[in-house]
Amino acid sequence: MQRPAHERTPRPGRARTAWLVGGLVAVLLLSAVLWEGRPWENFSSSLVDTRWSITTVRGVPMRTEQLRPFLQFLPHTTFYGTDLFVGEDTCNSLQGTYKITDNKVRFTDISGSLVGCPEAMDVIGALDATRSWGKDWDKLHLYDASGAETMILTRDDSVGYDLQQPAPTPT
């Protein structure tokens, strides 16, 4: 006569296997989070809602005499199917649109205040020429169509604009 299922003793190997599988899954999830930060985001959206200090443009270090040069990818505020970016070179504010597909990026509709400083046209020209991107830890590398580096940026959440709107007060 066979005993009911609740009275049977479990096989000792199954419990050990369950613990091993559970531990392996936990280690893989933790390593994914530590490796990339947010593994559930796909590759193309990992620049959205990030802020970067511009460190070099076409190999030339950026000066920071008047403004601290930066580029900020806004959080999915789409405009005709593209996302918006804002930024500053050493003396001008910049804005425009960008579209990311895999490791390809295209900056369009770039405009700025164009106060007379030499870096203004360099930054706009580098963004206009950019066709692809890559990340190396806290560095963002932008490349033109031939693979030459147009800009190097460093992740910096202290730059940019705080776009959080305060909650409305009741009247």
Look at the helices and sheets and give the structural class.
alpha+beta
**Count of discrete structural domains:** 2
CATH architecture of the largest domain: Beta Barrel
**Count of helices?**
2
Major sheet = 9 strands, antiparallel
- N-end to C-end Cα span: 77 Å
Give keywords.
2 domains, 34% strand, 171 residues, 2 helices, Lipocalin, alpha+beta, elongated, 21% helix, 9 strands
What's the short story on this structure?
Helix content is 21%, strand content 34%. It is of the alpha+beta class and 171 residues long. The longest helix has 25 residues, at 12-36.
How is this structure best described in words?
The chain is of the alpha+beta class. It has two domains: 26 residues; 113 residues, Lipocalin, CATH 2.40.128. It has two helices and nine strands; from the N terminus they run H-E-E-E-E-E-E-H-E-E-E. Strands 1, 2, 3, 4, 5, 6, 7, 8 and 9 form a nine-stranded antiparallel sheet that branches. A hairpin with a 4-residue loop joins strand 4 and strand 5. The chain is elongated and about 95 Å long. The chain starts with 11 loop residues before the first helix and ends in a 16-residue tail after the last strand.
Fold blueprint:
Layout: H1 12-36, E1 50-57, E2 60-61, E3 70-73, E4 83-88, E5 93-101, E6 104-112, H2 119-129, E7 130-136, E8 139-144, E9 149-155
